[in-house]
Amino acid sequence: MSATEKLNTLYQEMVAKYAGGLSNTSTAKFYPIRELFGGLFGVSSADVYAVGAGTRTTNLPIRFSQGRQATQETSLGVGFVIVPEGKTSFSTTNSATTTLRNYAERGRGHYKAMILVVVENGSPKVTRMMKYRDVPYDAAFSVHFPDADIVDAIATGGGDTQTDGVAPEEIQPEDSWEEMPELFTEGAEISAKLKFGLTLVQRLLASLCCKHFVILTGLSGSGKTKICQALARWLTVDPGYLDPADRSKGKKPNPCYALIPVGADWSGNENILGYPDGLNSDRYVSRPALDLIRHACEASFQDVPHFLILDEMNLSHVERYFADFLSMIESDEGMTLYCDETDADGRPQNTRSVDPILKLPANLFVIGTVNVDETTYMFSPKVLDRANVIEFGVGPDEMAAFLRSPESANLEAIDGLGKSYGPLLVSSTDTFPSRIEPTEKARFEADLKLFYSILREHGAEFGFRVANEAWRFVAFFKALGAGQCWEADPENLGGGSRKDSDSGGRDRLDHALDSVVYQKFLPKLHGSKVKLGQLLKKLYAACIAPHNDNAVDFSAVALDLNNPAQSGALKDPSRDIPANARYKLSAEKIYRMWRHLNANGFTSFPES
Q1: Given 281, 391, 466, 556, which residue has the most CB atoms within 10 angstroms?
Q2: What is the pLDDT of residue 107?
Q3: What single-letter DSSP state applies at residue 581?
Q4: More confident of the two residues 120 and 589
Q5: Helices within 545-572 (DSSP H only)
Q6: pLDDT digits (tens, 9 = 90+) for 91-136
Q7: What is the DSSP string of 98-131?
Q8: Residue whose C-alpha is closest to residue 235's, from 283, 201, 264, 260
Q9: pTM for the complete prediction?
Q10: C-alpha gyration radius of the chain
């Protein structure tokens, strides 16, 4: 069997074994192919790094750059691209050629050679291969791949002559959402030594897209701040080293994100928005948060996401220092920082080298981290109503895996790897992915009516804002799905494992609606057993109701739950959640709130 035939056999085996073939496939699954190429060229299989890019060739350089060999010299990088059926391969492969060549010349990864393997969608065979950089593998190629179309991209000026001058295939935004969560998750784990559940990342990204304000709560030391830093650094440009010759001096400051510890003495907005200098009428005292906002407003950075991370946000009363900011987030109006002079129309004039009118830019994302103990303050419904609240924890399996191989995070290794996705995240302000079918829309409406009815019965209903944000969240959550649904593990408090979630009839819409209940409805619940006892029972009953692909009369379920005659028949929330329950994450959280309620006579969403 020739080497070409062996390669095609391995490719066919992967297509049969893994859903999606080489698209969205982790690098570990490429081991047989890595072993084949290593044997062909006389190198160790560990020195061959293979990845798949599906039909989106712009993802291939990202996958290469975040590979485990990206920071050391590696003999061979192999990338598989699937060309859409019915299209010529020229524009797609030319796009990958140009991007890969530029990437290789930047020195991000020190590969001696890169090979692009092209497969036509629907075909079980490799149709052509392209080689990059001037390497001593020509003899091996000529012997082992006599029928393949081998092109030295650098020597011929960018690829096959038929591709010269052809613009790269345009990547539509809706086609680019899907792989973002998995690319970030893989990059964080492989490059930065940070492990986050894919479901958790998907929920975080969808939350940022639907509303640029997210709160992360949960166990101290569970990764809340690290995931903020990692995402900000992954999506923004690598600032580079202070001294490239001596990397021990560290990186330059990244102007696109700011990590700001909230102080217990913050009693006004000057810690966020600065203040006019009372001793110098020409000076306005700025703060890192305001510097970040002003940088985000610059014309050359309007497509780059900027992240304001407020660490331990509830060490002080949030409403005291953040009320103006919350108002700007909600109203999309600006605010006056100072007013020394006005023009003929009464508008403040710039007298202090800082624009007197501040308006939040569309590329600004605010993430607050929250720890709950005796030194912190509870959030008011006003704050919780304006954000998605995502809970973090550490499950037994996660702790066991960490203890087997404890490693410190290396955030520098992830800098800039996903910057091509930055403009896509910024575009979420004006984007609404059309991924919801009419039948799914009907299910969404029925479910929101159900939970509105239950909550309203107990004076905890939601308004138009929450309903609109829930609709946007579902749309983005579905768009960000990486080909499959991922089952979240209740032991990890919503962290999410990487196993398929098709058991019990759950689908991506169920996952999205489960997240809405978990992140938007439950965080506002707090009170005594008299206030919350029956409400938690009703919410639990709604969450464990089995999913049915056929039409479901959710209104009838709501009537049953709200029928006083049947209230006593509702079961107490239990840890034993039915396998076919629709909303497993929310049901498990309700059980924990119920357990706390029985033990202390009071419960709330945050757990100390």
Answers
A1: 391
A2: 45
A3: B
A4: 589
A5: 554-561
A6: 555 555 555 555 555 444 556 677 777 777 666 677 667 666 544 4
A7: HHHHHHHHHTSSEES-EEEEEEETT-SSEEEEEE
A8: 201
A9: 0.76
A10: 27
Confidence band (pLDDT; 50, 70, 90) for 167?
Answer: very low
- Write a three-state SS string for 207-261: HHHHCCEEEEEECCCCCHHHHHHHHHHHHCCCCCECCCCCHHHCECCCCCEEEEE
d(CA 454, CA 542): 9
What pLDDT is attached to residue 37?
A: 83
Q: Please enumerate, as own/partner, the contacts of 331-339 that have beta carbons within 8 Å and a separation of 24 or more.
A: 332/359, 332/360, 333/359, 334/358, 334/359, 335/273, 335/359, 337/273, 337/274, 337/276, 337/284, 338/276, 338/284
Exposure string over 557-584, b if 16+ CB within 10 A, otherwise e: bbeebbeeeeeeebeebeeebeeebbbb
pLDDT tens for residues 299-332? 999 999 999 999 999 899 998 899 899 889 888 8
Residue of higher predicted confidence among 337 and 555: 337
Q: DSSP strand E in 354-426: where?
A: 357-358, 364-370, 388-392
Per residue in 125-137, pLDDT (tens digit) is 776 676 665 444 4
Q: Which of 123, 127, 128 is nearest to 159 (CA)?
A: 128
The total number of residues shown for the chain amounts to 608
Structure tokens at 514: 């489960």
Residue 536 tokens read as 């938690």
- Angle, alpha carbons 442-468-532 (nearest 5°): 85
| 355: confidence class by pLDDT, cuts 50, 70, 90 | very high
Q: From the CB of residue 404, how many other CB atoms can be counted at a distance below 10 Å?
A: 7
Tokens of 483: 């080909």
* Maximal C-alpha separation, the chain: 85
* Structure-token match 């593998």, residue found: 137
Write the Ramachandran bin of 405: left for phi over 0, alpha for psi from -120 to 50, otherwise beta: beta
The continuous run of DSSP H or E covering 290 comes out as helix 288-297
Six-digit token string for 25: 């496939």
Give a three-class secondary structure readout of 24-61: CCCHHHHHHHHHHHHHHHCCCHHHEEEEECCCCCCHHH
Q: Report the alpha-carbon distance of residue 259 to residue 279 in Å, rounded.
A: 29
Measured in degrees and rounded to the nearest 5, phi and psi for residue 277 equal -70, 120
